Amino acid sequence: MEVSLPKTAAKTAQRTTVRRYGVGVLKYALLILVAAIFFVPIFWMASASLKDLREIYTFPPQWIPLTPRWENYVDAWNAAPFGRFYTNTLITTAIGVAAELLFGTMTAYAFVFIPFPKKNLLFLLMLAALMIPIQVTMLPNYLTVANLGWLNTYAGIIVPGASVAFGTFLFRQHFLTLPKEILEAARLEGAGHFQLLTKIVLPLSRPIFVTVGLIALVNKWNDFLWPLIVTNRIDMRVLPVGLAYLFDQEGNSQWGVIMAATIFVVAPILLIFAWAQRHIIAGLTAGATKG
Amino acid sequence: MAGFSRRQFLSFTGGAIGVLALAACGGSSTPTTGTSGGGTTGGATGGTTGTTVSGAATARATQSSGPAPQAGQKKVTFWSAFGGKNGEALTKMVNDFNGSQQTVFIDNQFQGNYDETAQKLAASIAARQVPDMVVLSEVTWNRFSLNKTLQELDGLLTKGGVDPKDYVDSLIAEGTRQGKIWWVPFARSTPLFYYNRTLFKEAGLEDRAPKTWEEVRTFGLAIQKLGKPDLKAYAFTNAKNFNAWHFQGNVWQWGGNYSTKSLDITIDQPAAIEAGEWLRKFVHEDKLAYMAPDQSIDFSNGLAAMTQQSTGSLGTILSTAKFDVGTGLLPEGQKFGCPTGGAGLALLAAAPDDRKQAAIEFIKFVNKPENVAYWSKQSGYMPSTKSARDAAEMQQQFTANPNYKVAVDQLPKTQPQDTARLFIPNGDQTIGTGLERIIVNNEPTATVFKAVAEQLKRDSQDIKDQVKDLGLA
User: Fold this and answer.
1) Neighbours of A244 (CB within 10 A)
2) Predicted confidence band at B58 (pLDDT cuts at 50, 70, 90)?
3) Distance from C-alpha of B191 to C-alpha of B341, rounded to nearest angstrom
4) Is the pLDDT confidence value at B88 over 50?
5) What is the rounded distance in angstroms from the CA atom of residue B328 to the CA atom of residue B193?
6) pLDDT confidence of B149, banded at 50, 70, 90?
7) Would you call A7 helix, strand, or coil by DSSP?
8) Which of B9, B13, B142, B332 ranks highest by number of CB atoms within 10 Å?
């Protein structure tokens, strides 16, 4: 059975379809473009990790290696003690992230829920710390660490970054949005500060907790300059500094080997990100809805 | 990929790679925090970083210091700046040295590239926890020299049986100030002229490098006649890739200078301006040249028929180019001119005396002809001693690779760079970005160099007296 629609209605429907279709195509084209911008460098890194130098330099680009050079991975792993670098990075990152979360939540809790004099002034001071570039604090921090005898130690790498203003700031902003009534109720039930923090505040702040944790994780995992400066010996180096062992001063670097090493340096972070991204998205949008 | 030319693609990917390879022989003189504090180390305790012996952290560590020192071996902490293949070659020499005798143990600690090593050294001097021996580039060593934190080497070298006269004259002269040696050559390079022999043949040109810049132009016109759309005759490079190091030669070739020995800025004088104008016309009127983010990559891919690049890049260019590569001395303007680059070894004044003398043992070891030859072959750096250059190992290398001989033949004709690039904080980049304005924006050289000179003058105020006191000849 054929139903004939009035002419104008058919036209409108057609136009709407075209427009909707057009917008859809445009939207997807844009999404694909953005995805490609992020994906191509990673693909290039993976592809280059399986090539020899000539294939990397060649034009037109060889997107898929003709004969994958898996030896690049073996060469990279053997070019420097990457096993040791992994251990060091795991230790400094794990302790560093844990410390940052611990200090961040406790400081933010105090700023929001504990009344004390000059609170706003102190908070402003903390915000000011956010604005001091790392180059300014680098040398004083180095001198302190050196005088403490902490060069070439995990403490030297971890402690100066154990408390970070940015994380504290994010926690504070989130804690301010928590309903006061719940905390009041818990307090009436006899909960102390520690219980309030661990039983009420933190469970209500999981997205922001994961967000700050991930930001800290990526920052500490990737940190190059500070660990380079406070360590001298190869057995105390971390992964990003380890990558530098593969670079050639005259630009004659074996890029295939370097890309292979880069893959196994970034792989753990990529995996953790893939696993935790649900939380980070929730965390970033949480503030928007609660305004 | 339509509408995305070879050159665009390469400048994108190659540029990214080039940025990663920030290093390169030129070395930049970025200002370092705490350098000025360096003068206070006269009474430093000499406590050395890493006095506890690390030992072999990991059995597979090719760049670790190898086995721990044996009883009675004097430990010398050595901060080096070589990664990749060069790092492996240095590690092998250090291990060979440590195994070859019972008295000295070199603890080789890699500290990043030249600039990172210099920054670490500045911090370590402020914290009074200095290493004993350090690799410093031709630019970075000057800061420490000005702050008087380096050790004078004449007495130590003589006592240790190292003959300073065996070093190639132009190289040891660079590390000599006020009649004393402070910095000995180790990993030295120079710019070298590269040309595409296959393209030259195709264009009916002689199989040799052009002798003068006018000839570069003539040869370039012949290359242009081939009518290949993606092909340019000549590739310059950008500031990030140390174009001010390469252009140093051009300035001299036209009879000018960036600055005088006592740091009077002369880049705005007629001779230097003429050198810049020639280059500008070469790019914008002849349309023969352009600026490549990394000239090695463009040259290896046949996008530029000629270029100038470090001798240290010869190995990579030979292994990545799909055509016959030829090399030659730098072209002449009114005369010949070629700077040196790379790094040397220095000792810290604040280090304990017995360790300084022990460090000389290592310098003596790396100066042995067979070790100079090994290091040179592995790294592409120039042999820095006469005895090694004339030894059989080196001669073999010359026969096997004639391109390499060209680089060594050019060496005696080189000279140390001008003070503006060596001493002024960020001087390299100030000149380099000026050159970019000429090559890319087609701005008149006189205007650009006037602005560059003003900037250099401002930035050199604080150090001018110190440089004058050095009495450079």
Assistant:
1) 22
2) very low
3) 8
4) yes
5) 5
6) very high
7) helix
8) B142
pLDDT tens for residues B89-136? 999 999 999 999 999 999 999 999 898 999 999 999 988 899 999 999
Which residues of chain A have a CB within 8 Å of the CB of B77? 232
Give the strand pairing for B304-310 and B191-196.
antiparallel
Amino acid at B321: A
Q: Is the confidence at residue B243, as pLDDT, over 80? A: yes
- B window 355-394, beta carbon within 8 A of A: 379-380
Residues of A in contact with B36 (CB under 8 A): none
What pLDDT does B305 receive? 97
Query: Is A155 buried (19+), middle (13-18) or exposed (0-12) by CB count in 10 A?
Result: middle
Gap between the Cα atoms of B151 and A90, Å rounded: 40
Determine the Cα–Cα distance for residues A178 and A253; give it in Å rounded to an integer: 53
Q: Nearest by CB to B23, from A138, A142, A247: name it.
A: A247
For residue B314, give Cα distances in angstroms to B64, B245, B360: 28, 17, 30
pLDDT band at B349 (very low <50, low <70, confident <90, very high): very high
Cβ of B245 under 8 Å from any chain A Cβ?
no
- Among chain B residues, the shortest Cα distance to A88 is held by B57
3-state SS of B455-469 is HHHHHHCCCHHHHHH
Cα–Cα distances (Å) from A19 to A5, A14, A27, A213, in that order, read 20, 9, 12, 43
Residue B453 is predicted with a pLDDT of 97
- C-alpha dihedral sign at A145, A150, A152, A157: negative
In sequence order, the β-bridge partners of residue B193 are B308, B328
Smallest CA-to-CA distance from B219 within B305, B104, B346 is with: B305
**Mutation site, A250, A258, A265, interface B, largest B CB count within 10 A:** A250
Residue numbers in B near A43 (CB within 8 A): none
The reply to whether ipTM tops 0.95 is no
Given CA atoms A213, A219, A223, A227 in this order, what sign does their dihedral have? negative
Q: Is the pTM of this model over 0.95?
A: no
Round to whole Å and give the CA distance between A241 and B63: 13
Prior bond to A60 cis, omega within 30? yes
Which phi and psi angles does B341 have, rounded to 5°?
Answer: -145, -170
Cβ atoms of residues B240 and B293 within 8 Å: yes
Min Cα separation A237/chain B (Å)? 10
Residue in A with minimal Cα distance to B310: A250
Residue B66 to residues A85, B81, B404, B446, Cα–Cα distance (Å): 17, 17, 32, 55
Residues of B in contact with A254 (CB under 8 A): 84-85
- B87/A245 Cβ within 8 A: yes
Give B262-321 pLDDT, tens digit per residue.
999 999 999 999 999 999 999 999 999 999 988 988 999 899 999 999 988 888 888 888
* Residue numbers in A near B65 (CB within 8 A): 234
- Give the integer Cα–Cα distance in Å for A262 and A249: 18
The pLDDT > 90 percentage for chain B reads 65
